Amino acid sequence: MNSKERVLRAFKKRQGFPDRVPIQFDLCRQLTEQFGRELGIEPDFSLSYYEDLTYRISANELRTKMGSDVVVVGGTVAKDFLPQVVEDDITTNEFGMHMKPSPLYVEVAKCPLDDVETVSQIDEYLFPDPYAPGRFDKAKRDIEKYGKDYFVIGDVEITLFEMAWHLAGLEKYLLAMIGPQPWVDRLNDRVEEWSTALALQLVRAGVDAIWLGEDLGSQTSTLISPKMWRDMFKWRHKRLIDKLKQVNPDLIVIMHSDGAVAPLIDDFIEIGVDVFNPVQPNVPGSDPQELKDKFGDRICFFGGIDQQELLPGGNIKEIREEMKKRLKIFGNDRGYLLAPAHILQTDVSTETVKEMIKAAIEFGSYS
Q: DSSP letter string over 206-224?
């Protein structure tokens, strides 16, 4: 059984059980380079149009060699784009965001629409061209190389809400939503157009799944009320998903949201989401048995392994026990792709990553 068949069976798109629960993981640049040296593989870094997505869509050769059943592809910067230095280590991306590296991620130091007040300012703002030459060259190469043997996900995270507030600034955007200010709806329209164009290109290129996403939750609750999400974003996501499934009715749709977003899972199911990610542990509503009992016959799960405390702690016995528990619960009657709940950072050792993969294979068997 190859990896593609394993994931398709796990996601209940093929008859029968897979031989084991499939696995996926993302690595930060430092871990990618460390494993690359260890395995003698030069990692290919694919610079995304939004920097933090780079490590989702990079180093597929390395990750499959390490044991991932999944390849992730997505849009890169346009062929002729070069970041411009603003000052010191701050550069601009294609959106005109000023991006500053931090110890773990790249942060938006200045938003291009932080002075927006009118609809006309939104109309005058130049979005990057989603069809720019070179944007999907790397994705198409990886689909051609891995698509027969591995499950291929097309990544379009930061889809609506999150991209919009990154353009205008979180405080300004949230206050304008409450206002409400007319420019918010127009900004949401243009972000939806951008993400739809990206997703449609990936579907037509032959991905097995599209990975949509917003970080809608904190450690304790949703960032905005469920009602506000339903009023402003749910129908947009449904419209996007409907367009994608018109092109490929068999497409698997994954919805990502960090944080305590269990109140929205029923909504995700209603709009056509097949898989919920990252099933972040240690937040309200994240108990694996409760999630499986309540939603397991209607949606699959992807993620679930704690990268905030468990994996950085490096206690192999605790890691193995927790993974064994989650594999047993989420993997029961299929419906699970095991993964850390986020990109693994430098606070996780290479030995811990190896033990995580080893435990996933050891405890994930259906035989």
A: T-SEEEEE---B-SSSBSS
- For residue 11, being part of any structural domain is answered with yes
* 122-175 confidence digits (pLDDT tens): 999 999 999 999 999 999 999 999 999 999 999 999 999 999 999 999 999 999
**Residue position matching structure tokens 């970080």:** 215
**Mean pLDDT along residues 104-128:** 95
pLDDT above 80: residue 67: yes
Give the total number of structural domains in the chain. 1
State the residue range of the domain holding 21.
3-83+118-363
- pLDDT (0 to 100) of residue 52: 87
User: Any idea what DSSP says for residue 337?
Assistant: E
Nearest Cα neighbor of 5 from 147, 143, 211, 154 is: 147
Are the C-beta atoms of residues 146 and 152 closer than 8 Å to each other?
A: yes
Beta bridge partners of 212: 156, 255
Per-residue pLDDT, 103 = 72
Tell me the torsion sign for CA atoms 199, 343, 259, 287.
Answer: positive
Nearest to 233 by CA among 257, 197, 202: 257
Q: State the number of CA atoms in the 13 A half-sphere of 215 facing the CB.
A: 12
Q: Are 218 and 225 in contact (CB under 8 A)?
A: no
